[in-house]
Design goal:
Elements: E1 7-11, H1 17-26, E2 30-33, H2 65-76, E3 81-86, H3 91-95, H4 100-116, E4 121-125, E5 135-138, E6 148-152, H5 170-191, E7 194-198, E8 206-207, E9 210-211, H6 217-226, E10 232-237, H7 238-243, H8 248-257, E11 261-266, E12 268-273, E13 277-281, H9 290-299, E14 305-308, H10 322-339
Parallel strand pairs: 1-2, 1-14, 2-3, 3-4, 4-7, 7-10, 10-11, 11-14
Antiparallel strand pairs: 5-6, 6-13, 8-9, 12-13
Helix pairs in contact: 4-5, 8-9, 9-10
């Protein structure tokens, strides 16, 4: 099924026949499962994410091997290899509350079930409060009137903390992240799965009094070095790398040469002010050299998934964004083929 190099991947909102058939027809090879078995079509994420007013809730019960196996078999029936699932992280862990010890144990059980079910990557975010209020719609602002999304830190910089959340420093958030890694990475090693942390996005230093602990390239390097293990990896994002003003292909070489990339979001942005002001655009229309990124993935021998993300909107597209996803998936397939090393090149 897969060609040499990275594998074309897609996060799924559901396991309906129409969804699975569409993505396989579009050329997807592996998928990220939804949190639970859902066989009715569900809408994609909103163009502008809703405002987050507090950290995540309680830690959900761990998956069972039977549930995960059922979902993997459902995807396999459509020739899609389910390799990945998002690992929820509770508010108690993010806020450093006493209940986190019990939640660490729940997560360790979930990791064990994922490994026994044959999954290989568990993604997660360590963001207690995402700066979603900084996003805004740019309807019709893209080429040919495509609908884009922008981010501007000026929209959120002076917003006060939520009384129910309070202020949390960078040092506090970093210590909580390190505690999380030390508590769960050994379980991932034992289960034969890889944890993959998505960088804080938007990469602002602080939002409503809550610091973002993994917002810079150095932060990402520190994450994988703090608990140095093949099970402790990065959910690499070419868009976030570019938002920082960093050289995304060089960052791929850094983490990829150390085998610390678990999975990938592959997207592009136009940056006005690094970290603070940018616009999410089509893969071929931003500041990131996407061909150089794909070439770098080949160079480091990366064989995991590359997943399009944050697609601009096409006129007439549905809430499932199938036109946008099909366009991005086609570009990824072409980029992979065009940059694949050949004998004598």
């Amino acid at each position: 099924m897969s060609q040499a190099g990275p594998r074309i991947s897609k996060q799924l909102a559901d396991l309906s026949e129409s969804t699975l058939r569409f993505y396989r027809q579009a050329g997807v090879e592996e998928v990220t499962l939804p949190a639970r078995y859902v066989d009715e079509p569900r809408n994609s994420r909103p163009h502008v994410p809703p405002t987050q007013t507090g950290p995540a809730g309680p830690q959900p019960p761990p998956w069972t091997v039977e549930e995960l196996t059922r979902m993997r078999e459902r995807a396999a029936a459509f020739d899609l290899d389910a390799t990945t699932i998002a690992l929820p992280v509770s508010g108690a862990i993010l806020m450093g509350l006493p209940e986190r010890e019990a939640d660490f144990e729940t997560i360790r059980r979930a990791i064990g079930a994922a490994g026994r079910a044959g999954l290989s990557v568990l993604t997660y975010n360590f963001t207690a409060l995402r700066a979603s209020e900084g996003y805004f719609a740019l309807d019709g602002a893209g080429r040919g009137g495509a609908h884009l999304r922008g981010f501007d830190d000026d929209r959120i910089r002076d917003l006060p903390p939520y009384p129910t959340v309070g202020e949390h420093s960078r040092e506090q958030m970093w210590d909580r992240l390190v505690a999380f890694l030390r508590a769960v990475v050994p379980a991932a090693e034992s289960a034969g799965v890889r944890l993959a942390m998505h960088p804080n996005d938007p990469p602002v230093p602080i939002y409503r009094g809550v610091a973002q602990p993994a917002r810079t390239l150095q932060d990402w390097k520190d994450v994988v070095a703090t608990v140095d293990s093949p099970a402790n990896t990065l959910f690499f994002d070419t868009g976030v790398s570019t938002e920082l003003g960093e050289d995304a292909p060089e960052a791929i070489r850094y983490f990829g040469s150390r085998d610390r990339i678990g999975t990938v979001h592959f997207r592009n942005v136009r940056v006005e002010v690094p970290y603070e002001r940018y616009t999410e655009v089509f893969l071929d229309d931003g500041d990131c050299d996407v061909a150089a990124c794909m070439r770098a993935f080949h160079e480091v021998g990366y064989r995991g998934g590359i997943d399009p993300d944050h697609s601009p909107g096409f006129d007439g597209d549905g809430v499932d964004t199938h036109v946008g996803w099909a366009f991005a998936i086609g570009q990824l397939i072409a980029l992979r083929a065009a940059t694949r090393p050949t004998a004598g090149r």
